[in-house]
Design a protein that fits this description.
The chain is of the alpha+beta class. 29% of the residues lie in helices and 28% in strands. The chain has four helices and five strands; from the N terminus they run βαβαβααββ. A five-stranded mixed β-sheet has the order 3-1-2-4-5. β4 and β5 form a beta hairpin.
């Protein structure tokens, strides 16, 4: 009897964190920032309860039956997401956002880059960040939009 073919699966895990930020670009004037970002440009900032869903992919190990050990994934997410972001002022407490506008798009990129350093190569598939129930960003590591 032939051995079973390798099966690929995607596994997702979620975490929630709370943080505040101010949408403000150093490349724009105060007037331009206010026009572009509206109330999200409040000088005192504003907060969100973010939800992040991380999806990994890989072969299902025939011995363990897992794509990745969930305990390991939980620890990676703790280090890459919770420790640097939870209960923080993104713009003041996270060095990455000193020069990068703390939009949800850039939060997703930050999380991707952090996780990529920790997870086994090639397993990170998707980072989905809910700023609110209505505002959601999905990032899959793409760097540019290719020309057609």
């Amino acid at each position: 009897m032939a051995p079973p073919a390798a099966r690929l699966a995607r596994l997702s895990r979620s975490v929630c964190f709370s943080a505040c930020h101010r949408l403000h670009s150093k490349s724009l004037s105060d007037e331009e920032n206010l026009k572009l970002f509206g109330k999200c440009n409040n000088p005192n900032g504003h907060g969100h309860n973010y939800k992040v869903i991380v999806t990994v992919r890989g072969e299902i190990d025939p011995v363990s039956g897992m794509v990745i050990n969930l305990t390991d994934l939980k620890e990676y997410m703790q280090e890459a997401i919770m420790e640097p972001l939870d209960h923080k002022n993104l713009d003041k407490d996270v060095p990455y956002f000193a020069e990068v506008v703390s939009t949800t798009e850039n939060v997703a990129v930050f999380i991707w880059e952090n996780l990529k350093k920790l997870l086994p190569m090639g397993t990170l598939y998707k980072v989905k960040v809910y700023e609110t129930d209505q505002n959601i960003v999905v990032y899959k590591g793409e760097e540019t939009i290719s020309e057609k």
